[in-house]
Amino acid sequence: MELNSKAAKLGLEGDADLQFLLKGGELMKVKSSTWKKNRFFKLQEDCTTMWHESNKPFGKKQTFSIDDIDSVRKGRESEGLQKYTDAQEEDRCFSIIFKGRRKNLDLMATSAEDVQQWVSGLDKIITNTKKLNRQQTSEHWIFDEMRKADKNKDNMMDLKELKHFLRQINIQVDDSYAAVLFKECDTSNSGTLEGPEIKEFYDLLTHRQEIDVIYGKYSSTDGQMGAEDLLDFLHNEQCEQVTLEDAVKLIEKYEPDDSAKQQSHMTKDGFLMYLQQEEGSIFNPAHKEVFQDMSQPLNHYFVSSSHNTYLTGDQLKSLSSTEAYIKALMKSCRCVELDCWDGPNGEPVIYHGYTLTSKVLFKDVIKAIREYAFKVTAGLLPTCPPVSQTSEYPVILSLENHCTLDQQKLMAQHMRTILGSALLTAPLEDQMPTTFPSPKELKGRFIIKGQRLNKLDTVFGSSPGVEVESISEEDEAAEEHSNYLDRNKKIKLNKELSDLVIYCKSVHFSGFENAKAKQAFYEMSSFKETKAANLAETAANAFIHHNMSKLSRIYPAGSRTDSSNYNPVPMWNTGCQIVALNFQTPSKEMDLNQGRFRPNGMSGYILKPDFLRQAGSAFDPVTLTDGPWLKRKVLHVMVISAQQLPKLNKEKTKSIVDPLVRVEIYGVPVDNASKETHHIDNNGFNPMWNKKFQFNLKVPDLAMVRFLVEDYDHTSHNDFIGQFSMPLTSLQNGYRHVPLLTKRGDVIPCAGLFVHIILLDP
């Protein structure tokens, strides 16, 4: 694959910014106030890898993949650049932010013009790579692996290089099969594959038998699939209510052969391309946009929520960082936590109190939240639309206040000054409200959750501080294990900070009856996971009714010092809105959280089912009596095949995965289930199972489906390869491709499952 064809596939042939990156240039790498060193950076000819100089032994050259980049930020946007560079150097700075826990790459160019070209060039490659359809991405990846296998760079492939290539793409074949494959393609009998022979080898390799079978069943028009054939497929297999006009539009959109397109025919290549696009995805593309009613009261929604958002690792000694807030917000988290303590020089800081976690300034966190809560990334050109945006719906700042009066006052001033008019400082209504406003009414606003001196309808005095009963999450958790805390502990609360608490006043929970009789709608309690789990098990219906009029926040037990997570599903089942998880920790629980909030435009808000919102509901997820929530469904899943699963150990060329697929259901206890395929030896490129499963569901409105792919190991735990989670209500019937995500929730390019789904009434 030539350089110009790679640029052409990205739509960047002749682009000046791309040429600038390919030529490369010197940048200053900034690690500290004393470590600032010039390094040469250059985009490699594959247009997917960045190379830079290194001072490591033996002149080792460093590279990283464009796929590993989360974003590129122009200016002094990172903590490192803010600390170690001067404000007047703003226009010469930029940062490369990586996915996962890899440290940012903070850089300085020689001029503002160079910065613009570096940032613009990288943005174009990242954006245009994402636009490639799956077939193009797959082809791009396979030809790159071929290039790497071509050790002597002669644009030909001998048998030895072929074997190396097959191992690189996750296929283990015996020598005799590799020789047969090689001989079949070596039509020139030259002992090497080149030009059309390599294309023949590629076609042989990527041929999908399962697609042949499906296509053959419906291609009754001169050996191809006519518009009416495609319509039959969409009706019979995909269970879609579409018209002939819709079928023609799909042909026009995805058919690569112009002559077939003119006849309203779809070739097998066009059919595969359609199946690999969003119309052929298991996830309903209509749910990629906000489609739910956003005018209900705030407490009628599940809210994507983070615990101890500032931490990048464990709860005892990890770094506190504004970057952790940015990453959570960019994932559309809508409730973040700030543990506030007195800091030096009169400035409040955020960290996990009484631990060795590092500290970050409160004002820096508020600045980062303001910048990224409702972030819109501009298009590459002034005429281009935004390329990405976080949710426009409200962000709740959950304050854990441990500060003295003076620093509390400064906290209030910082929030008013930095957040400006976006900060909610009074009820939206002209008179005392009786219920929450809606997410729609609160678009672009910041809501403060914390302690308040008095009821919302009280006329406050001018006293600078008043003693009030208060207990923090940390104190409440510690209380169960120690007698040193005074149950009636009192703190002084600054009035300016208190006045910012409008719809989320923190109060101690003293039972559902007490809450019903004495708590106003805006008074909310936080529950440790064990307390919440017990209530969900023993008093689920009372918990549900409590959440119909109030907000509840759930947080991890203090014993989770490793920042592990609890199961959020039982909390959602009882209508708890703010189920806070450790976003920094890859886990099944975070997979489910990402899946729960995938629909509705990834807005961070999901409307709860009717039976969790309507007064008089007798729903109990544990006892599960008859009611409108019982909508019995039978889910049939056939796991057909997988494509291009990643190698787990790239350092060992002979290491090939032995994949298996597990299909898991999470919902009310009676619906929970898990079924798995057998494993397939030594094939991560195109394994095939054709394994059928059946799940009987009673409450589909609360069910989550998780597809998990693992590398089988008979001597130890299986290794994670990829997963995809989603609500059952967003699932599409028929033959569908399932994308796969990494442990940290990023898409694995090229990889996926192919399944057949039928959701039926029993």
From TrEMBL:
<feature type="binding site">
    <location>
        <position position="308"/>
    </location>
    <ligand>
        <name>Ca(2+) 3</name>
    </ligand>
</feature>
<dbReference type="Pfam" id="PF00169">
    <property type="entry name" value="PH"/>
</dbReference>
<dbReference type="Pfam" id="PF00387">
    <property type="entry name" value="PI-PLC-Y"/>
</dbReference>
<feature type="domain" description="C2">
    <location>
        <begin position="616"/>
        <end position="742"/>
    </location>
</feature>
<feature type="binding site">
    <location>
        <position position="712"/>
    </location>
    <ligand>
        <name>Ca(2+) 5</name>
    </ligand>
</feature>
<keyword id="KW-0677">Repeat</keyword>
<keyword id="KW-0807">Transducer</keyword>
<feature type="binding site">
    <location>
        <position position="553"/>
    </location>
    <ligand>
        <name>substrate</name>
    </ligand>
</feature>
<feature type="binding site">
    <location>
        <position position="656"/>
    </location>
    <ligand>
        <name>Ca(2+) 4</name>
    </ligand>
</feature>
<dbReference type="InterPro" id="IPR035892">
    <property type="entry name" value="C2_domain_sf"/>
</dbReference>
<keyword id="KW-0479">Metal-binding</keyword>
<dbReference type="InterPro" id="IPR000008">
    <property type="entry name" value="C2_dom"/>
</dbReference>
<dbReference type="InterPro" id="IPR011992">
    <property type="entry name" value="EF-hand-dom_pair"/>
</dbReference>
<dbReference type="InterPro" id="IPR018247">
    <property type="entry name" value="EF_Hand_1_Ca_BS"/>
</dbReference>
<protein>
    <recommendedName>
        <fullName>Phosphoinositide phospholipase C</fullName>
        <ecNumber>3.1.4.11</ecNumber>
    </recommendedName>
</protein>
<dbReference type="GO" id="GO:0035556">
    <property type="term" value="P:intracellular signal transduction"/>
</dbReference>
<keyword id="KW-0325">Glycoprotein</keyword>
<feature type="binding site">
    <location>
        <position position="449"/>
    </location>
    <ligand>
        <name>substrate</name>
    </ligand>
</feature>
<dbReference type="Pfam" id="PF09279">
    <property type="entry name" value="EF-hand_like"/>
</dbReference>
<dbReference type="GO" id="GO:0005886">
    <property type="term" value="C:plasma membrane"/>
</dbReference>
<feature type="active site">
    <location>
        <position position="352"/>
    </location>
</feature>
<feature type="binding site">
    <location>
        <position position="711"/>
    </location>
    <ligand>
        <name>Ca(2+) 5</name>
    </ligand>
</feature>
<feature type="binding site">
    <location>
        <position position="526"/>
    </location>
    <ligand>
        <name>substrate</name>
    </ligand>
</feature>
<keyword id="KW-0378">Hydrolase</keyword>
<keyword id="KW-0106">Calcium</keyword>
<dbReference type="InterPro" id="IPR001192">
    <property type="entry name" value="PI-PLC_fam"/>
</dbReference>
<feature type="active site">
    <location>
        <position position="307"/>
    </location>
</feature>
<keyword id="KW-0472">Membrane</keyword>
<dbReference type="GO" id="GO:0004435">
    <property type="term" value="F:phosphatidylinositol-4,5-bisphosphate phospholipase C activity"/>
</dbReference>
<feature type="domain" description="EF-hand">
    <location>
        <begin position="137"/>
        <end position="172"/>
    </location>
</feature>
<feature type="binding site">
    <location>
        <position position="713"/>
    </location>
    <ligand>
        <name>Ca(2+) 5</name>
    </ligand>
</feature>
<dbReference type="GO" id="GO:0016042">
    <property type="term" value="P:lipid catabolic process"/>
</dbReference>
<feature type="binding site">
    <location>
        <position position="400"/>
    </location>
    <ligand>
        <name>Ca(2+) 3</name>
    </ligand>
</feature>
<feature type="binding site">
    <location>
        <begin position="29"/>
        <end position="56"/>
    </location>
    <ligand>
        <name>substrate</name>
    </ligand>
</feature>
<feature type="binding site">
    <location>
        <position position="339"/>
    </location>
    <ligand>
        <name>Ca(2+) 3</name>
    </ligand>
</feature>
<dbReference type="InterPro" id="IPR015359">
    <property type="entry name" value="PLC_EF-hand-like"/>
</dbReference>
<feature type="binding site">
    <location>
        <position position="337"/>
    </location>
    <ligand>
        <name>Ca(2+) 3</name>
    </ligand>
</feature>
<dbReference type="Pfam" id="PF00168">
    <property type="entry name" value="C2"/>
</dbReference>
<dbReference type="GO" id="GO:0005737">
    <property type="term" value="C:cytoplasm"/>
</dbReference>
<keyword id="KW-0963">Cytoplasm</keyword>
<feature type="domain" description="PH">
    <location>
        <begin position="20"/>
        <end position="127"/>
    </location>
</feature>
<dbReference type="InterPro" id="IPR002048">
    <property type="entry name" value="EF_hand_dom"/>
</dbReference>
